[in-house]
TrEMBL record:
The keyword Cytoplasm does not apply. SUPFAM superfamilies: P-loop containing nucleoside triphosphate hydrolases (SSF52540). Belongs to the CbxX/CfxQ family. Residues 127-263 form the AAA+ ATPase domain. PANTHER family: AAA-TYPE ATPASE FAMILY PROTEIN / ANKYRIN REPEAT FAMILY PROTEIN, AAA-TYPE ATPASE FAMILY PROTEIN _ ANKYRIN REPEAT FAMILY PROTEIN. This is AAA+ ATPase domain-containing protein. It comes from the Eukaryota. Coiled coil: none annotated. Gene3D superfamilies: 1.10.8.60, P-loop containing nucleotide triphosphate hydrolases. It holds the Pfam family AAA. Signal peptide: none annotated. GO terms for molecular function: ATP binding; ATP hydrolysis activity.
Length: 282
């Protein structure tokens, strides 16, 4: 890969040793940022390398080390991503109400896979599929999508934590070609982050809904969006979503992560209100 070769030459010229897993991690971050508009390979690589060198120097100054080990750049020298959660990214799940969705355990399993790939020097591309969120309105699907985006960004899977929220009806046009335009525009805004489509089963009905779905599935195979560069979450009532999936083989093959949000119990509602009230006290 050209970026790996350039990075190796830069490290050699600067007199530092860059282990393979660190090279892969840097290039993988750049690969994610390619999904963002106005990305430039050369400039981004130089900026990334400057940031790593600065972090590396700061670590050495803080530790007071010397000798050959000082030339070894480590994964800890990679700066924190803009907007990423400080500390343990999984702490973002602490205030998520548990309705039996299993999203927390899902994300913890993903975190373990991320760390394993980083240790082995493997890229994070194609690590996660697209999501189906099922459940009634008000069960936390949209909030969870925002948590998901923040986590995936902190893990280095996504270039940004931005969530673009829309609905199946919003993406369905009123004449031939309009649905394609609507989907293209919303995917462009979600690029590098998460697209959340509520009431997504509207995309399975009528010629214009089908047109929107075909455009969406087609865009997921484009270089700017494929291999996990942008994650799509389709959400809606459980039965309607499963009927939509059963009617579209292509949809089933691309949306492989399933999370169901159960109805909140009276106790959970009470606890949430109490927590919100406590948080609002100065």
């Amino acid at each position: 890969d050209e970026l790996l070769a350039i990075l190796t030459r830069k490290a050699r010229a600067d007199g530092v040793h860059l282990p393979w897993q660190v090279k892969v991690a840097i290039v993988d971050r750049l690969a994610k940022r390619r999904a963002l508009p106005h990305f430039g390979n050369a400039g981004a690589l130089m900026t990334a390398w400057s940031d790593v060198k600065r972090q590396h120097s700061a670590r050495l100054l803080a530790g007071g080390g010397d000798g050959a080990l000082d030339r070894n750049v480590s994964l800890v020298d990679l700066p924190q991503r803009d907007g990423a959660a400080a500390g343990d990214p999984l702490s973002l799940l602490d205030d998520l109400v548990d309705t039996g969705s299993g999203l927390g355990s899902h994300m913890r399993e993903l975190a373990a896979r991320v760390r394993l790939r980083q240790r082995e020097g493997r890229p994070l591309s194609d690590l996660i599929g697209h999501f189906i969120f099922t459940g009634a309105p008000g069960t936390g699907k949209t909030v969870s999508a925002r948590k998901l985006a923040a986590l995936l960004h902190s893990f280095g899977v996504l270039a940004t934590d931005h969530v673009e929220v829309t609905s199946g009806n919003d993406l369905t046009g009123e004449y031939v070609g309009q649905s394609k335009t609507k989907v293209g525009e919303v995917m462009s805004r979600a690029r590098g982050g998460v697209l959340f489509v509520d009431e997504a089963y509207a995309l399975g009905g009528g010629p214009y809904g089908v047109e929107a779905m075909e455009k969406l599935l087609g865009m997921l195979t484009e270089p700017e969006y494929m291999d996990g560069k942008t994650v799509v979450v389709l959400a809606g009532y459980k039965d309607e979503m499963h009927r939509m999936l059963d009617a579209n083989v292509g949809l089933k093959s691309r949306f492989t992560e399933f999370v169901h949000f159960g109805d909140w119990s009276p106790k959970q509602c009470t606890e949430l209100v109490q927590k919100a009230a406590a948080d609002s006290v100065p």
